[in-house]
Amino acid sequence: xGTTFFVLALLQCALLFFLSRVGxxxxxxxxxxxxxxxxxxxxxxxxxxxxxxxxxxxxxxxxLKQDYPAxxxxxxxxxxxxxxxxxxxxxxxxxxxxxHVVAGFAKGCGQKxxxxxxxxxxVEDEVELLAFCDSTHIAPRDFIRRLVAPVVDxxxxxTGYHKVVARDTGIVTMAYALCVQLMRYLQGxxxxxxxxxxxxxxxxxxxxxxxxxxxWMTNVVDDCSLADRLIRLGARIRLSGDAVLMTExxxxxxxxxxxxxxxxxLFLKFCIPYQWILLGVLAxxxxxxxxxxxxxxxxxxxxxLSFGWLVGALxxxxxxALVLRGWAHFQEAVFPVWRWVVAFCASACMFVWVYLGTILxxxxxxxxxxxxxxxxxxxxxxxxxx
Length: 386
Fold this sequence. Notes:
With 386 residues, this protein is of the alpha/beta class. The chain has helices at 2-31, 56-64, 83-94, 111-123, 143-152, 171-187, 204-209, 212-216, 224-232, 254-271, 273-301, 307-328, 337-358; strands spanning 43-48, 71-77, 99-102, 129-133, 157-166, 199-203, 237-249, 363-366, 369-373, 379-384. Helix 1 (2-31) packs across helix 11 and helix 12 (307-328) packs across helix 13 (337-358).
């Protein structure tokens, strides 16, 4: 048994080190100057918005202040009286180029899909490219240029991602930052690159050619289900490694983190089942060495195991801390390495706990709507919670 867990620990540390190298490459790309072109195509910027996120106003303002010369921004809300709609109207007073579209309630697809499609309808007669962004992440001024550059260069689809900047040393805050970091680094591996709905760009002709409109009209989510469809149709998705949104995390709530992770895993289960299975393997690889180290220490303290087990556990802990120190390098603030180790252990436990809960799940709760979901993310029925 000791040999098995030693191998798992070695694999875990090797994988985390490899991903840190991917992170270094993405960090270098992010620091490159923004691409320059003599001509930028007319681009519709579609932002589905809902709820009342505390940083929504700031995030939307950052998207409206882009230095892109031919941008057609549209904020889409489900109703005219929700908080996000009030923010949209307030921003229109300062940004006259902004359009606000009231989409109404979705009936056979995810509300975000429905909002996005109404946004497309508002601009598709005027633009060549479609960019989609979330309403809760802060964008640097050159973000849109970085996001659309691969499409301008000839690709049909490009995607960016976001990073979480931890503003406190709370374990939940740091664990959430690590989870997003892991997902971004996986995006940096070409065989795992897929569209992320928070920052993606389509050529309008590709949007029509690949039937994105018809697909979204029956699907629960906009990104991973579409990514699977595009892969099966032979389309290529290009990562804009330098197109990075910023998410600030402070006093992050445990329940919010858990529900966020639940959605990420459930979307994969319904939309790309083989990746969901691989995710389960990854979850076990992240947790089992941690459990082995804990039980080894307890076994030695209780006199059930030899001192060599304690040495093995300490060597593993040191190796893990060394690797995670490289991950912590990409955060703006410097926090003690031991807290990153604790945050990593917490995220591994949450990862497995949430994953186990998705095995029998038949649907997903998202922004107050329960979706019963079938194969490839197709919505079977939906119910709005009161």
